[in-house]
Amino acid sequence: MRRSDPDSERRFVTILRADVIDSTGLIAELEPEEAVSRLEPALAAMRGAVRRFGGIVSKELGDGVAAVFGAPIADDNHAPLACHAALELVRRVASLGDAGLQVRVGLHSGHVVAYMVASEFSKVYEIGGAAQHLAARLESVAEANQIYVSEACQKLADGHVRFEFLGGRTLRGFNQPLPVYRIVGASDLSSWRVRRARSVSRFVDRVTERALLGRAADSVVAGRQTVLVLGDAGIGKSRLAHEFAQELKADGWRLVDAECSPNLQGAPFSTLKRLLLSLLEVTAKDPDDPGDPRSDLPLIQRCALDAVLDLPISEPQWNELEPHARGRAIADASCTIVASAARRHRMVLLLEDLHWIDRASDAVVAAIASLQAPDLLVLLTSRPNGMPVWIARCHAEIVAMRPLDDDSGLAMLSDMLGPSAANADLKNQIISHTANIPLFIEEVCRGLRDSGSLRGQWGDLALVRPIDELGIPTSIQGVIASRLDRVSRPERSILQIAAALGPRSSVAMLRHIAQLPEDVLQDCLAALDRTELLVRIDSELQDALEFRHEMVRQVTYESMVEKVREDIHARILATLERDDTIADEPDTLCYHAVRAKNWQKAFGHGRSAGRKCLSRSAFPDAANYFEIAMDALDRTPVTGLREAAAIDLRMEARAAFIASGHVAEWLDLGKEAERRADAIDDIGRKVAAMTVRAGAQNFYGAPVEAVAVNEEVVRLAEGWGNLGWLNLARYGLGQAYFLAGRYRDAVPTLALAHDQLASVEASAPIGTTPKYLLLLCCMMKSFTHTVMGEFDVAEQLQRQAAAIAEETGRPYDRVAAAYSGGWLMLGRGDPAAAAAILEDGFVLAQKHGIRLFVPVLACHLGIAYLEQGLFDRARGMLTEAREEAKAVGYTSAVLRSSIYLALATHRLGDVHAAQNMLREARNTARQQGFAGLEAEALFGEAVVTPASGAANKAAILAALRAAIAIASESGALPLQQKAEAMLNEALARGDEFT
């Protein structure tokens, strides 16, 4: 066996599985020939039902069939068609008259890989993927002569078919119960009514198209006018036609409407029957009409209409007619009663979806559209690929539908989402994604609401979470896929390459990768431009091309099987790597390397992209690219060199994870690097990894543990002799001492690193620079001296930090300098100056995603507001600080913001809540070893506790004495002095109790 054309593709389809129940028992005692003759009628009925509704039997299973709808040619009605096929299948088997033959059917809509398998004598269309298994499981649990359907299929076919919800069912192979539906019958709703019932938007714009239709209506007095509204699925043909027809009806016109059905394309005269029934119903309701328009027809023409309407005919003359004569009689009779009705009353005859018309009706409708009858407006709708060949012969005016303009698209969105400016970015995103195609706009909004991204009622929806990908609702995947199936193989190939390149590409790039003859390439591009799938645009790029809307690109890309995608991305990568202008775009190269599964190149380009983002202070993006690089490197063969590179990469990546506030990931980087260093017995890299782990421990764990780890790391680093890593280790130990409240120990430790980094021979480890590390030492040392009350020394260090930040201009450096500057101003007792500095730093940190600093900046900004008496602002900022600190995993920041939030809460009158918060913070600080914060919490308890009653007074004095003891031991002189002053004041009032 071999695979042949069409190539393997991913398809979104509906799968039907059906079998005869207990077939083994039915034929167990039969001879082979008898067994075949018993089951074959049922199998033939199954095949016939599937084929009648456009499905393909992909496999016969002995006692059943597996079929697919929506492939190899896409059809946006694959789910309704499959449901109707299932109903027909059950009906046909039941009509065989064999009570022992009972069937069950399962239906599911999902993605599959579809391909043609060819042998020497035949071709078989096969499908693969998990979707077919769900259809099989639904079939296996269905009851006799019942059709069980998945939720995915039900959503696509709802309205066209009636369903009963059976609840969640546990199916073999699936961990969770799945919602299951049962088909209870076909719906009598037209496709337009189904769409109209789902619609939540109002009719907008279409001024030009309505003017053209109005002009045609004004001309019907002179003779019949035929207008074809032409456009792709979802463009709004039906909406325009019905809105206009209702306007005419309101002006006194008689409206006769019908539609062609995809379910009835194989049923002769099905469209004409609908049209005639609509005409007879309308005339019967008109009090001024003389009666049944058929009564004036000749006998043969009355018989002709009865035949179309499935009425009994006993006239021998009709039965003797040849098929061709019957067809002519049907056409003549139809034209006669339409023309007669129009003579009595101005009439608009609306016939929708001509692309689904059955062949027998097509010739009759062509004759009606060519009638020379005044006061008749024939209004037709069709997709371009189904436009009838007779349109030109009947001199129809074609009104080509275009997407809405941006203003109309936004008006439609405002109607659905609401006028709130908060949704402005989302609205623009949807406009870009859908290219203003009305159905696509509506279905994307519906998908966002169903997923919970939008909450509220239509017309007043609020976005509750950020949206990165709008995606493609399943309801319109088939619409787009059917357009793609109309292009040639070379055109499809170019579309696939363009989809892999992204929303925009160039002719030159497509030329390099497609390797097509120039005339073929240009013909393909011209054809794609005409169909508005890939259009030429005005751009600084020569011959720039762009997908008309992002959904077309996504469906094109997702239709490719993995091997095809990999090959295209590999060719793109090779082409880009030869282009010197792309060398400075490692993110683009990384994207294609990952999708080509070239892991060595993905590692190199991912690392380069991470470095580039770091240099631009785009820390979240840098972390993302370093993660890609780490994952790619780990997919390459294991060697000692690979492991060494993996350790170095994690060491380099730490800065991105630190700045973006991924503390847990930062800790994991160190742990993983340390494990790998042990495995290859690399002492130097182990020390580096331990240094990174120890730094993360300062934020993530208890100070006692952090101090122990950092002390061990400094000892190892001193033995190793690498000054860069030793400087970082000393900085980390100084920070650990600070967090533990050991300020006197922090000063000399930080001074050693500071002095080396300020020297001519300054050294820093991979992933950072001496100046950056010097700035951090200045910041940390300034904090320490501020807490100790040594403000002049702290100010010298702050000036040095600010000078470095000014020189580098890096946002991270500026934020760090703002943080230490604000802390110093608070220490000096100038909260207004502190707030001004901290506000600038806070905005800068948020803008550049420097999330590590956000909670501490917010905390100290809240303290500055508190000390200015802005208690409401202080509470809001400190609440935000605490939540951010929790999210980041920044333990000391959670405690500090909790302490000062309690003080703000106290100033706003809730003493009890403030006491509880401070008590909890004090206990946590004591348990985890945050001595400095324990002292601040104790002082806070003394402040918020009312000095009433002996117990409260005793508690205040105890808290103050405990705070003084800790502050004295650690060297926190300002806190010690504030506590002593308060204690002395209390004692002076006689609050001492024994």
Automatic annotation (TrEMBL):
It comes from the Bacteria. One of its GO terms (molecular function) is ATP binding. Residues 14-139 form the Guanylate cyclase domain. Keywords: ATP-binding, Nucleotide-binding. Pfam families: AAA_16 (PF13191), Guanylate_cyc (PF00211), TPR_4 (PF07721). InterPro entries: A/G_cyclase, AAA_16, Nucleotide_cyclase, P-loop_NTPase, TPR-4, TPR-like_helical_dom_sf. It comes from Bradyrhizobium cosmicum. GO terms for biological process: cyclic nucleotide biosynthetic process; intracellular signal transduction. This is Guanylate cyclase domain-containing protein. GO terms for cellular component: cytoplasm. CDD domains: CHD (cd07302).
